[in-house]
Design goal:
α14 links the parallel β10 and β11. This protein folds into two domains: about 5-180, Rossmann fold; about 200-320, CBS-domain. The protein is elongated. The protein contains 15 helices and twelve strands. The strands form three sheets. It has a five-stranded parallel β-sheet, with helices on both faces. Strands 6-7-8-9 form a four-stranded mixed β-sheet. The chain has a three-stranded mixed β-sheet with strand order 10-11-12. By secondary structure, it is α/β, with parallel strands linked by helices. Helices cover about 45% and strands about 15% of the residues. α2 crosses α7 (about 155-175). It has helices spanning about 5-25, 30-40, 50-65, 75-80, 105-115, 130-135, 155-175, 180-185, 190-195, 200, 220-230, 250-255, 265, 280-290, 310-320; strands spanning about 45-50, 70-75, 95, 120-125, 135-140, 210-215, 230-235, 240-245, 270, 275, 295-300, 305-310.
Length: about 325
């Protein structure tokens, strides 16, 4: 009896699925572009449907589409036959998944699409199947062997369906110019939500800004620096723009006769590291960490004027790090 080796099995499965994915990528053609354009132009929703493992994949694709700016939903094909067909409108596009294309539970969805002229896109391995013949567009996946030897358990086929759904979702988001700021709207929670927060979401407002004018005596500038407790004080010009900043390093460099100076004489002119309120918090963190020099606090500016301040602790509390 051959000794069972889990690693060998795992590698065989992964290699088989990787090979099938490579074949799918190589065979992708203009039909894919046509499908993307149809989905992009849809006035209504993208309705995903399927049965069994294909249904689970369809539900996941619907979730991915919805989180990347497409109005998408999943309708179970069996439930569709018992009233849920009414959820599908004539402005929608149906995306149906079935490896064989002969899943009988899809018959009512197919008939409904044909009757009401609702565009139907099929993801199947058999374009000559009932689903393939009825569809307006057929996205064909390779009829590759399933990864489970001697069993026809959906493995490779569902991986191909899932990957093709991801390809559609990413193509659509790039087609519509979807940006990280847009993505944040659909992901406000968790680590991803934190990374997609903006500086404006986390910054401290104008009431907490440590600011002085260039002519402010250093005695008074130190009082502001101590009161605000940011370890920095910004120096603004007569027009309200940020002209410089004073940090602990500037104080040490001017320790001799410090109190005889004005803030403008001690400051480092034109702080190199300032951020707009629209910058992603993750980008602000990268700017803080990028030497030279690494910093723990940033002034938030608009049109050169300081409107807020951001400390690295604010990023820690928000879960950005």
């Amino acid at each position: 009896m051959t000794k069972f080796d889990a690693i060998t099995v795992g590698r065989r499965v992964l290699s088989a699925e990787a090979e099938a994915l490579g074949q799918l990528a190589a065979e992708l053609d203009d039909t894919f572009t046509t499908a993307v354009e149809l989905l992009f132009a849809a006035k209504g929703r993208i309705v995903l449907t399927g049965i069994g493992k294909s249904g689970h994949v369809a539900r996941k694709i619907a979730a991915t589409l919805a989180s990347t700016g497409s109005v998408a939903m999943f309708v179970h094909a069996t439930e569709a036959s018992h009233g849920d067909l009414g959820m599908i409108g004539q402005d929608d596009v149906i995306l149906a998944l079935s490896k064989t294309g002969e899943t009988r539970e899809l018959a009512d969805v197919i008939a409904y699409a044909v009757r009401f002229h609702i565009p139907l896109i099929a993801i199947t391995a058999f374009p000559d199947s009932a689903l393939g013949r009825a569809a307006d567009i057929v996205l064909t996946i390779p009829d590759a062997p399933e990864a489970a030897e001697k069993l026809n358990v959906p493995t490779t086929s569902t991986t191909l369906q899932l990957a093709l759904g991801d390809a559609l979702a990413v193509a659509l988001l790039e087609r519509r110019g979807f940006k990280p700021q847009d993505f944040r709207v659909f992901h406000p929670g968790g680590k991803l939500g934190a990374m997609l927060k903006t500086v404006g979401d986390l910054m401290h407002g104008s009431g907490e800004l440590p600011l002085v004018s260039a002519t402010t005596p250093m005695k008074d500038a130190l009082l502001v620096m101590t009161e605000k407790r940011w370890g920095i004080v910004g120096v603004i010009g007569s027009d309200g723009t940020l002209s410089g900043a004073i940090t602990d390093g500037d104080l040490r460099r001017h320790i001799d006769g410090l109190m005889s100076h004005a803030a403008g004489e001690v400051m480092t002119a034109g702080p190199k590291k300032t951020v707009p309120p629209t910058m992603l918090a993750s980008e602000a963190l990268a700017l803080m960490s990028d030497p030279p020099p690494a910093v723990t606090v940033l002034f938030v500016v608009e049109a050169g004027r300081p409107i807020g301040i951001l400390h690295i602790h604010d990023l820690l509390r928000a879960g950005v790090m």
